[in-house]
């Protein structure tokens, strides 16, 4: 079921058939970042008030998020907490907060009434350093009569000014069980608007065939599964970076499954397969290979799990 929201809102895609287990966070990774030599370092200034002109911004989600301002030789000019991306307009910081969402009472199977439960949702902005301009990227969903709702949004990676964001929403309405919904959006910080990057992926039929083969391998009757269902739907793209900084992209494709058969990787009532993308969408081509600063930074900090880089 596809639910449309306004232009800056997220389209929630739910597939009718699997169980949604909550993913567990990966163990923290310690990153030993070597600072730039003292002669190269700028005068100490507040991270909130100044930008490092000409530097490449590299960020990692480890430890709650860190952004490094990196010189062309890979030296770290400074670092700051959180996710910051650079555009021609300046540097934008990702800010997110949790808000209350009003829920409703509901009637249980035996006629008992369950009072309104907990309701939370997240609102996210990109805030321009210095100028204070804001882009509203994520808004909390309406409870739509749910007794319980829990909504969260996560930046899973970035490519230049494009942020890849996943939303998860758990709802309960006094039925036999709750429901986990999932959504995905790519946000262009340069233009301040969402981009339908899924529609720009080349060779989707080939990705669907590969995903179907992977999913069939776990079906008890794979031939029957192929005959009874539509091809897996492309639901998410996840950027990643090789050890030397080259961009790689993975597609997530999902198809319906029974509630108990779901794998929790996307929404309830679905199973998913992850397939590498051989050809990037054309708009991502300028960021396929890393600039010298990123390559040098990774050489200085081998094993650093970067999630994105950007530059003015």
From TrEMBL:
<feature type="signal peptide">
    <location>
        <begin position="1"/>
        <end position="21"/>
    </location>
</feature>
<protein>
    <recommendedName>
        <fullName>Secreted protein</fullName>
    </recommendedName>
</protein>
<keyword id="KW-0732">Signal</keyword>
């Amino acid at each position: 079921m596809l639910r449309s929201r306004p232009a800056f809102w997220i389209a929630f895609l739910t597939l009718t058939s699997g169980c949604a287990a909550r993913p567990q966070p990966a163990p923290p990774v310690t990153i030993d970042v070597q600072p730039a030599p003292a002669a190269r370092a700028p005068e100490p200034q507040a991270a909130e008030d100044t930008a490092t002109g000409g530097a490449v911004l590299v960020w990692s989600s480890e430890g709650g998020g860190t952004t490094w301002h990196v010189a062309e030789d890979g030296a770290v000019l400074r670092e700051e907490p959180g996710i910051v991306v650079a555009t021609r307009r300046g540097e934008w910081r990702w800010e997110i907060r949790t808000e209350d969402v009003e829920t409703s009472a509901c009637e249980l199977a035996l006629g008992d009434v369950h009072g309104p439960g907990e309701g939370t949702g997240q609102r996210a902005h990109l805030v321009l350093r210095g100028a204070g301009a804001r882009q509203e990227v994520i808004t909390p969903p309406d409870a739509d009569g749910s007794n319980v709702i829990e909504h969260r949004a996560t930046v899973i990676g970035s490519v230049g000014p494009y942020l890849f964001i996943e939303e998860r929403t758990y709802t309960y309405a006094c039925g036999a069980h709750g429901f986990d919904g999932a959504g995905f959006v790519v946000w262009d910080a340069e233009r301040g608007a969402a981009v339908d990057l899924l529609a720009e992926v080349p060779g989707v039929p080939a990705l669907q065939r590969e995903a179907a083969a992977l999913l069939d391998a776990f079906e008890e009757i794979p031939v029957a599964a192929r005959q009874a269902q539509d091809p897996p739907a492309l639901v998410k793209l996840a950027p990643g970076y090789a050890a030397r900084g080259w961009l790689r992209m993975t597609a997530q494709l999902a198809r319906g499954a029974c509630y108990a058969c779901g794998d929790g990787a996307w929404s309830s009532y679905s199973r998913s397969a992850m397939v590498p993308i051989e050809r990037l969408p054309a708009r991502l081509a300028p960021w396929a290979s890393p600039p010298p600063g990123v390559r040098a930074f990774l050489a200085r900090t081998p094993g650093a799990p970067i999630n994105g880089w950007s530059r003015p």
